[in-house]
Amino acid sequence: MLVALSPVGPVEAERDLADDEFSCPLCQHLVVLKRGRVKIAHFAHAPGADCIAVGESPRHLLAKKVLAEQFRGLGYHVELEQIHSDGERRVDVAVWSDKSRQWVAVEVQDSPISVEAMKARAQLDRRAGFLGTAWVWTGRRFDLLLPIQDGAEARIPPEMRWFNNRYKAGVFLLDAPNEEMWWVQFGSAGREGSSYDWYEQGGTLSGVDYPGRTLVATKRLFPERVSFRLEPIESPWHKPHKPDWGIVFTP
């Protein structure tokens, strides 16, 4: 985790942060500031903690730190690991949108996640007052889709297909070590049909036709590097009385 509570309030982990007594904002358990030379500075729970914030990967921590730095560089107000007022969820990076005058949630996903879990998180964010949720993939999902040439094919995980189908916006991949955001759009991939002929016993010509088909999970990929600037977009299901905003990164 990158944020802990100190006697004077929330603080972000930094190598030069003064020694103090820190606790987890979620579970109030004691946490220790780690200043490793390889890993980024972060807080780790002391033994005995039972908390959803235990065991974050170094890759996930780095992604959150890079996002926060890039957003702040663009002039956004940012809060790392903002906790919903009811304590139900912790947003990886919360960004204040001057355009919409609302917070947007940015979620880093570096491992597989079910579509139902994505829907549940996005719904919790909306109920907590967030305009919408931006999804950023790293880790194995990044390795699956990048680096890749324009038009190459890959099998797209269900959660990525759901986001693309919901907002018609492709998906966004973070190369955290190089501080780059990539937008990958999907194109249809298909297979041509085929026909087979043969002669039955007695000389009768027979055959079968297999029609061409469009593949559901496999898509053609078109990657493009984009900025870290955020933009809300309406989904096809957006209605004034039932808003459905997606949050995307702009070129």
Give the gist of this structure.
The protein is α+β, with helices and mostly antiparallel strands and 251 residues long. It has helices at 58-73, 115-127, 139-145, 158-167; strands spanning 3-6, 9-12, 22-23, 30-34, 42-45, 77-83, 90-97, 102-109, 132-137, 153-155, 171-175, 180-191, 194-199, 205-210, 213-226, 230-234, 245-249. A hairpin with a 6-residue loop joins β6 and β7.
Q: What does it look like?
A:
The protein has helices spanning 58-73, 115-127, 139-145, 158-167; strands at residues 3-6, 9-12, 22-23, 30-34, 42-45, 77-83, 90-97, 102-109, 132-137, 153-155, 171-175, 180-191, 194-199, 205-210, 213-226, 230-234, 245-249. With 251 residues, the chain is α+β, with helices and mostly antiparallel strands. It folds into 2 domains: 1-53, no CATH class; 57-251, no CATH class. The strands form 5 sheets. The protein has a 6-stranded mixed sheet with strand order 6-7-8-9-17-16, with helices on both faces. Strands 10-15-12-11 form a 4-stranded antiparallel sheet, covered by helices on one side. A 3-stranded antiparallel sheet has the order 3-4-5, with no helix packed on it. It is elongated, with a radius of gyration of 23 Å. The model has no long low-confidence stretch (mean pLDDT 91).
